[in-house]
Amino acid sequence: MSHDMLDMTNSASNNNHDKHESHPLVIHGCDDVWTFSKRDRSQEVYLSNNNRTAHFHPNWSKGTAGIRGTRILNNGRYFWELKVSRRVFGTSMMFGIGTKAARLHVNSFTNLLGEDKNGWGLSHKGLIWHNGVAKQFCNRFKENEATKIGILFDGIAGTLTYYKDELCLGVAFRGLNEVREPLYPVVCSTAAKTEMILCNTKRDFANLQDRCRAAIMKLVRTKDRLEMLKLPSRITDYLAESICETPDTILNNYPNYYDCYMV
To answer: Is 77 helix (H, G, I), strand (E, B) or coil?
Structure first.
């Protein structure tokens, strides 16, 4: 099945607005370390808090601005939450995923994430968008009221599930396991002075080795303490990967990381 034809699940049969439903990944998964990208963003998005807080249209809004996360999602299970400031209003504030082909800026007020086949998004008006088609999914968010949005990407089952203020809204999209292009977290907004904070990033374990590493690093925690163990360099390097995404690591993957997006 082409990802142009993904099902957008009927919200009437999937939404669970009346109960708290934490996914097992939130409880039993391990911490995942990624941030918003300084490279892949609209120039109307500014970053702070070690690239975990995105500020949209800091003066006034002239269009729609978006930003990608640094995490590639395909083939894994990932959960992340976004704390959204009280400035919830305007044409469209959106949360979801997209490929690198998804636009991150346009000089008009629009539902940017999901405008074409490269994005899958939920807007603050309760609509889910993909391939230019919108469907009602949940209630509109209350304007000028802070909220927290949780997103669960299951690359094995191929689903994208949303949570709002720790309530499960249900599965919004299916068939994502058939998408071959790299998928990334994406947020965007038309509203001036919007703020979104990335928090509580979790992932599933890739294998037993990964699970063992997480158990070890819960006790070790820092690179200084890890180096005191005097383990073979290959083991030390592998364990250190789970501590943080250092600038050097990012620069190896993105050579132009600091070229033109310094805040």
So the answer is: strand
The Cα 225–Cα 227 span in angstroms is 5
The CA–CA distances, whole Å, from 183 to 27, 153, 158 equal 24, 10, 12
Cβ burial, residue 67 (10 Å; 0-12/13-18/19+): buried
Spatial separation of the C-alpha atoms in residues 225 and 41, rounded to whole Å: 36
Structure tokens at 34: 């990624």
Closest by CA to 163, choosing from 193, 134, 199, is 199
Instruction: Summarize pLDDT for 7-27 with one digit per residue, the tens.
Output: 554 443 344 444 445 666 776
- Which residues neighbour 236 within 8 Å (Cβ) at sequence distance 6 or greater? 226, 227, 229
Q: Which residue in the block uniquely carries the two structure tokens 């409880």?
A: 27
**pTM over cut 0.85:** no
Q: Is the dihedral of CA 197, 200, 205, 209 positive or negative?
A: positive
250: its two tokens = 């990012």
- For residue 78, what are the β-bridge partners? 153, 203
What is the token pair recorded at 263?
């805040």
Task: Report the SS3 class of residue 199.
Answer: strand
Give residue-wise pLDDT tens across range 199-242: 989 998 767 787 788 788 778 878 888 999 899 989 998 888 77
E strands along 24-91, which residues? 30-31, 36-41, 45-48, 53-56, 64-69, 77-84
Distances (CA, A) of 200 to 66, 152, 222, 260: 21, 12, 19, 29
